[in-house]
Design goal:
Two copies of one chain form a homodimer. Chain A has 313 residues and is an alpha/beta fold. Chain A is built from eleven helices and twelve strands. Chain A has two domains: 104 residues, Rossmann fold, CATH 3.40.50; 178 residues, 3-Layer(aba) Sandwich (Rossmann fold). The longest helix of chain A is centred in the C-terminal third of the chain and has 21 residues. Chains A and B meet through helix 4, helix 5, helix 6, helix 7 and helix 11 of A and helix 4, helix 5, helix 6, helix 7 and helix 11 of B.
């Protein structure tokens, strides 16, 4: 008997079939089938209660839709099937958030808030306000997924990247890596700071008055991580005193930022309401993540963002 | 007699010695000396009348400070020394202007004008406004220095680049190249358009009402080339009708944009007063250009942006 052609890997989509995800499955080398016939399930729902109570025995891998999966553990879904491969969407949205942070920084350096407020042609005045990221030193505090995704963007415009992480281990593309215990000294020798670190007791008010004092009047501070990493009152003071150039905040403390807060109206504060990774953009990023994991599943390679059912994350 | 160590190449700076340029000369492998002892002259002045009437016989190369050198020909300076190597600053500022165009596009796609106008936390509303350049198709019309410098920036955030040029010759990094005679069809299949073409009779109103009609309600049009390439009245109409997402204009028609013009106050119009390449930024970019040419001069390689004294450019 001669060997038959290999059948495409059979992938089910739930809770419903979505065109973006179906395309991603096909791009990855799979075929979309009903759950009963599938080897893998891509579940794009966020509510564990809607997840199938039983899975067919043919299923070997389940791809979930969120980066954090605590609620899937809490609901007992993952532990019900400890022998399956489970993957999350961790990392899938890093590039989206990084693009947002990069936009805030570029907009600041190129004086877009002041340009947008202008209603008359003031070229000479703006000549003195427009800067460049070319040759600028940018600290990325927290070189996880978001920070790493930002590095090729920054180097594409000629910035020099100083990554700050806990281990001091090399970060691909960074010009320099500094360990987190030396983060304060970094403020004294960079032009701009991007905060992309996790929120912990250690990172609370990582950017406060002493750190802001080390920056310059053209420095921008960007935060796309968690509000409490930056001391809001210290930022307001630094903006009022023109100690720094400006801030771009996708996260705030308190959050939501209350009506009437000075950050809404201070000239060089750009506030975006924690929308760096909106649902519309998330769909495309998740589809790319699924396509890559399907390709790996078909090829028998290790999957991205694998969940450890024992460890609980 | 044993051979002596090679002497550093001797470069003079004029009209005065500037630290940035002196550093660039040293970085390129040269040594800053007085004009009388120099093999090359880097002249950072813009007025041909101030250029030395006589040059020492030791001079073999002169680097000028501007991208266009018509006024240096008009003043007869270059033709007085037809046997020297002359170089301009052509290309030195492309990356600076490209960074500005890229900033305008990213700011538009991420809804920064509307964010900056907000004074209350409206996350759900902004979820529907924030987009991404990841996977977006961006046409660059005019793939000269500025257009080419933009390509690595766009690809770093995952955009798909369609370059439009006259020859249809491949453009490094572009996903597709379309010849200029087919430019209109490009508007029907891209998300955003960046205008970076030279101003000629053929390119006047290259972006007009028929072209804008082919774009979508989330499309941004960026112009960093010359004002008349874009039909201003058509843009105003398209913005009022929400036919396009917005415009980012560093050049306008008329220019300067008069007080009271609707583009100053229409919500998604970002106007910057032809300041994409301000003197402050230009100095660093020119120094990089000088450093590279000094390196090439020292190494005996062809110089960048060589002027043809016979041809007159």
């Amino acid at each position: 008997m001669t060997s038959s052609h290999a059948q495409p890997t059979r992938i089910a989509l739930g809770p419903e079939v979505d065109d973006l995800l179906a395309d991603a499955v096909v791009r990855g080398g799979g075929q979309v089938v009903d759950l009963a016939d599938a080897e893998a399930l891509v579940w794009a729902g966020d509510d564990p209660a809607r997840f199938p109570a039983e899975l067919p025995e043919s299923i070997r891998w389940v791809q979930l839709h969120s980066a954090g999966v605590e609620h899937w553990f809490d609901a007992g879904v993952i532990r019900r099937h400890p022998d399956l491969l489970w993957t999350s969407a961790a990392g899938a949205f890093s590039a989206t958030v990084a693009e947002h942070a990069f936009t805030l920084l570029l907009a600041g350096v190129r004086a877009l808030p002041e340009h947008l407020a202008a209603t008359t042609w003031r070229q000479r005045e703006f000549f003195a306000k427009v800067g460049t990221l070319r040759g600028a030193r940018v600290a990325i505090i927290g070189a996880g997924g978001i920070g790493r995704a930002m590095i090729p963007m920054l180097t594409a415009v000629g910035a020099v990247v100083i990554a700050v992480n806990r281990s001091g281990r090399p970060v691909p593309g960074a010009d320099e890596v500094v360990t987190a215990d030396r983060v304060d000294e970094v403020f004294g020798r960079v032009d701009h700071v991007v905060v992309a670190a996790p929120a912990t007791a250690d990172t609370r008010h990582l950017v406060g008055a002493p750190q802001l004092a080390k920056l310059g009047p053209r420095s921008w501070v960007i935060n796309v991580a968690r509000g409490p990493l930056v001391d809001t009152d210290a930022v307001v003071d630094a903006l009022r005193d023109k100690q720094i150039g400006g801030v771009g905040l996708d996260v705030t403390d308190p959050e939501p930022l209350p009506d009437g807060h000075p950050l809404w109206t201070l000239p060089n504060a750009i506030v975006t309401p924690h929308d760096s990774n909106p649902p519309s953009v998330r769909a495309g990023a998740f589809a790319d993540h699924v396509g890559e994991n399907v390709r790996r599943f078909v090829a028998g390679e290790d999957l991205v963002a694998r969940i450890d059912p024992e460890a609980g994350y």
